[in-house]
Amino acid sequence: MRRARSEDAKDERRQLLLSAALDEFFERGFSAARIEDIAQRASLSKGTVYLYFDSKEALFLALIEDLATPNIEQIEQIAAAAPSLREALDRLAVFAPVMIRTSNLPRLMKVLIGDSHTFPDIIRDYRKQKIERILGALTAFLDRAVDRGEIPPQNTSLTARLILAPIVLSGMWQAVFGRDADAEIDLEALFRLHTDLLLKALSPEGTKS
Question: What φ, ψ does residue 101 adopt, rounded to 5°?
């Protein structure tokens, strides 16, 4: 195959390699995946892969950045722009099902969990740079909700984890059982219920019971 010359062609080939790598990692696991198999899946030469990524680890890091960062930014925007806790949770309840069904982030999560022992440094960096970034945005918003008097003072960093938990669980469910029609979940109903339960539990009246 001829070498890509234009920037658009280079970006298209890079995305092709990332897609092939995700398929390979998801089906075989990171440890068993090989650069030559990724190249073959993308209908490119092994040498072409190394023009874009110098290692399998570099490919995986690029996947994390490509798949995780846009979704993190969306959650940050929701947390920053929503004028109230209810509005933020309502917006998250709309965003989460779309992200879980239409993005490849759940597949990436499965690879991260399944092969976490293989690349502990990458896992640690993912937690610090991605997961804690989301938790930080949610914690900051909850702190503002406390300041506004919407919710009583509390450990907002732990509450942020309660907000994020069903997104992570539903993502993993989608990655593992998504092909099984019998395992399909009404994600819209799930996140509406989660929002209602959180609001009830966090309200001043709810914390007194």
Answer: -85, -35
Take residue 92 and report the two structure tokens written for it.
Answer: 């998250």
How far apart (Å, rounded) are the C-alpha atoms in residues 159 and 191?
16
Question: Given CA atoms 143, 146, 147, 153 in this order, what sign does their dihedral have?
Answer: negative
Task: Please give the pLDDT value at position 4.
Answer: 54
pTM of the model: 0.87
Tokens of 49: 């892969």
Confidence class for position 71, pLDDT limits 50, 70, 90? very high
Work out the percent of the chain whose per-residue pLDDT is above 90.
84
User: What DSSP line would sit under 70-128, residue for residue?
Assistant: HHHHHHHHHHHH-SSHHHHHHHHHHHHHHHHHHSSHHHHHHHHHHTTTT-HHHHHHHII
Residues whose CB falls within 8 Å of the CB of residue 69, separated by 6 or more in sequence, listed in order: 130
Q: How many CB atoms lie within 10 A of CB 208?
A: 7
Q: Which residues of 43-59 are buried (b: 16+ CB within 10 A; e: fewer)?
A: ebeeebbeebbeebeeb
Tens of pLDDT, residues 72-130: 999 999 999 999 999 999 999 999 999 999 999 999 999 999 888 888 888 999 999 99
Among residues 125, 115, 95, 58, which one has the least CA distance to residue 194? 95
